User: Fold this.
Amino acid sequence: MRTFKKGGVHPNENKISQTKSIEILPIPQKVYIPITQHLGAPSTLVVKKGDSIKTGQLIAKSESFICANNHSSVSGKISKIDNFIDASGYKKPCIVVDVEGDEWIDSIDKSLEIKKDITLSSGEIIQKIKEMGIVGLGGACFPTHVKLMLPEGKKADYLIINGVECEPYLTSDHRMMLEKGEEILIGTSILMKALNVDNAIIGIENNKKDAINHLTELSKNYKGIKIESLKVKYPQGGEKQLIKALTNREVPSGKLPLDVGCVVDNVGTAFAVYEAVQKNKPLFERVVTVTGKSVKEPKNLMVRMGTPVNYLIEKAGGLPEDTGKIISGGPMMGKALTSLDVPVVKGTSGILLMKKSESKRNKEQNCIRCGKCVVACPMGLEPYLLAALSEHKNYEELEKHHIMDCIECGSCQFTCPSFRPLLDNLRLGKNKVGQIIRKRRKK
Amino acid sequence: MNILTISGSPHVHGDQSVKKIMQGVIIALIPAMLMAFYFFGLPAIIITLTSVVSCVLFEFLIQKYIIKGEITINNGSAVITGILLAFNVPSNLPIWEMIIGAFVAIGIAKMSFGGLGKNPFNPALVGRVFLLISFPVDMTSWPVPGRFSTSLDAVTGATPLGIIKEGLAKGNHVSDLMSNIPSYFDMLIGNCGGSLGEISAIAIIIGGIYMLCKKIITWHIPVAFIGSVFVFSGILWLINPELYIDPVYQLLSGGLMLGAVFMATDMVTSPMTYKGMLIFGLGCGVITVLIRVFGAYPEGVSFSILIMNAFVPMINKAFKPKLFGETVKK
Assistant:
């Protein structure tokens, strides 16, 4: 079975919520919608305090190249525009909406019927995706339309749809593939048309056999879409690892997937693209897995953006007594939350509650130079060395040892028998070296 | 209200820990230890206990009174050093010499560099070589193995490698000497003279397979080490079988198995990458044969590993892992 070759680890899968169908979470009374929910330049606010808005109405628009539109997820009145803590732990500008009913803007097609015919042209599709504020739903939130606008002279051979979901615990993509398979395949066809490619591969890890079988069956009616089952290995959902696993192409250091003729999108994104293009629906809700060993009712919930995490946890049986850590995302790459009021955004794939006993790190010990981090690193780096260089603030050497290639997957720290905070140090070093590189480019 | 822990990802950890690794190594050492107790009897048990207790005690005392830092004796690494050091001495070594050996291994080779993970040389081997140079007679008089005996006065004799070395030096041919040395089978199970833990090749191999299964070691160093000894000594043997003993004998005799499986694979003092490990093993093998065949000592495993330990930083620099995306496939 296919997988990527270099490095990788196999954390316990703990997909507790994989059999739970997607439930629609009722809209809370108040939502906190961050104005910018993507990677890139901030969006420009187009509404003001006191405005009455409808579900799906544009609230902030894109005015730069790497930027995305943002829409209201609810209808009601904007009671406040202020800064609130988000998943990153920093305060970000949000609009606070007092919810009144759920009135959608008229242009959205609310019918349940699945619309298969793709009538728009390639350019129109990209325009539509941009308009509807679609960003990568795998977690990075890179604006999708930017990926689809190929620079002069570049051509894509493959569209790769990421259904790997290699993070332990998370099941939102899994449920999407089972319940929205047809829509995902149409979304994939739309993306293929936009990119003008003939081949698309949907990569799914083989711990989701039901999803593989379901999509394989459905894909018989779609030209050029192949479903590929992959061996379970973390971090297969990493763009570069997935391309390697599916096409055996290696994205060179510092380059983009397009340099090897690939464009990668998440299954969730494919679904959002379907809704945007076929149903005129902006991206204002997504599936979020609420899970954890102590969670009473682990769930996969369809959630409006801006819903506070607290509200999701309530619906999953409430906050367990011995919760020690709450993570937005999966346990390998997710962010520990500083507050329960953090709103769900486009990049929130899951809320993971960890018990007190699981929350604390073990005490750090001396490096025993076992080399397990080197073996685990999917990028072929030497984490033990990079961590030491970072501790010594030797940024020149760090850059020479390719710190910028680090994808921050955490395999090194996961595998370290001395419990060393390798990724903490790598992240620090990578940030600093990134700053130095940007400063140098400016000169 | 709950107080939440905030830390960077990853938020989960694999099941490996230093303690587990060390425990695994100790388990892997048990077969060889039992064979040593069986063939050398009570003195072997006394020597092993002395070595382990002194290693742990020295580590404790140094951490408590000199470094005044955290006490880490319960991670098991001092126990391993103790067992390996005992494995590298004859069972009739005087107790006080064993204690000095333990002090050199822990105090000088390990703690003076900063403890576990910081030492450039394998502590047990440093201890052994110190003893070998300081007490050459005691370190090279080997009790002839018998069935389990409680007697502390054993008959001493030479090791198979010693017999060959001495014989060849006197101008004898290999074929004349073969009758004086134990059979291959005896050497495989350990019915021959030598240090405590090195005699039984089969027990060491069992321990090695256990460590491979538990992913404590990888095959690279042992295979490169043993393989290069086999090939190099095989070439010499093909050139002149009367002057050089056959490669199978080279594999089964002396400390080769012990060195290749337990000493050269020490994580702290071996290279990081698979490529580096292969080079490291190859170097150990070549130096071992050079010393055995052309050197003054009959055995060269400990010297070869210590010499290669010194090259580890260089090997780590020269043999980097292959970067993802380094070569572009079109």
